Amino acid sequence: MNHVFAIPAFTDNYIWCIHDTQFACIVDPGDAQPVIRALEEKKLTLTSILITHHHYDHTGGIDALIEAYPDITIYGPTNPKISAVQNRLSQGDLVSIQQPQIELSILETPGHTMDHIVFYNDDLLFCGDTLFSAGCGRMFEGTPDVFYQSLQKLAQLPDKTKVYCTHEYTLANLAFAAHVDNNNVELQKYTDWAEKQRKQNQITLPSSIQTQKMINPFLRCNNSSIKQNIEEIMNLSTQSEVEVFAALRQCKDNF
To answer: Is 53 a known active-site residue?
Structure first.
């Protein structure tokens, strides 16, 4: 049976560790040192690394981890910028890791970056910077229609799927969500819970697809109240869910 825990890095990154109490797989290691410390503390042997996209806070620790664990296998997107990746993945590919034993499928989710992929099965989603709790990544390389379609792919996953994002942005995202979705009772309940978690220095992840569909404005672009609110805030008119998404993203960038 596999377990997943967060290794904090930088100011708000989480490097996820999937393990079976003996072998470990690491997701998006931006920094090697906290990973090596965690593996040594828990007496875990690193066998593999999963990379979602090329940003340095997700890839910066790869070289030092290869040095410490020369036999590891590295899976990631088809982007030559990430030179250490041995297994380049695209949508529909399946990753089968033997130790720890886990199978994960690939979705391409361009928007935050154009090379972004996510790893998922019926229980777990490692979504990098595409989806956050109550938010989504900044649109550095994609366009609103591309990013919106990527988020729609994730919204189609089973409700029970646990969502492992790579940043503790939840409280800031919730403040924005309340700004555009102020009558959402589920959002208010979730905010109370998240604030308690952070006061106790506990993390707010993983979330679930079901929860995100109830509280995340970027997954609720078809909601008439959000549409009306964002049109008033941004002083514009929207004709489609993609346009609502674009307005939400622009508003969040300046929130």
So the answer is: yes
Question: Which residues lie below 8 Å from residue 222, measured CB to CB, with a gap of 6+?
Answer: 241, 244
Q: Which of 181, 182, 131, 180 is nearest to 157 (CA)?
A: 131
Q: What is the pLDDT of residue 173?
A: 98
Active site (annotated) includes residue 179: no
Helix pair angle (224-234, 241-253), 10° resolution: 50
Rounded distance between C-alpha atoms, residue 51 and residue 116, angstroms: 9
Mean pLDDT for the chain overall: 98
b/e code 42-71 from CB counts within 10 Å (16+ = b): eebebbbbbbbbbbebbbbbbeebbeebee
The angle at the Cα of 100, spanning 97 to 104, to the nearest 5 degrees, equals 45
Q: What are phi and psi of 41, to 5 degrees?
A: -60, -40
From the candidates 19, 54, 55, 116, give the one annotated as an active-site residue: 55
Residue 243: half-sphere exposure toward Cβ, Cα within 13 Å? 9
Among the listed residues 31, 58, 116, 181, the single catalytic one is 58
Q: Is 54 assigned a catalytic role? A: no
- Give the whole-angstrom CA distance, residue 93 versus residue 17: 21
CA–CA dist 60, 79 (Å, integer): 15
Q: Which of 28, 31, 57, 181 is an active site residue?
A: 57
Is-catalytic flag, 63? Answer: no
Read off the pLDDT of residues 101-131 as tens digits, 9 standing for 90 and up.
Answer: 999 999 999 999 999 999 999 999 999 999 9
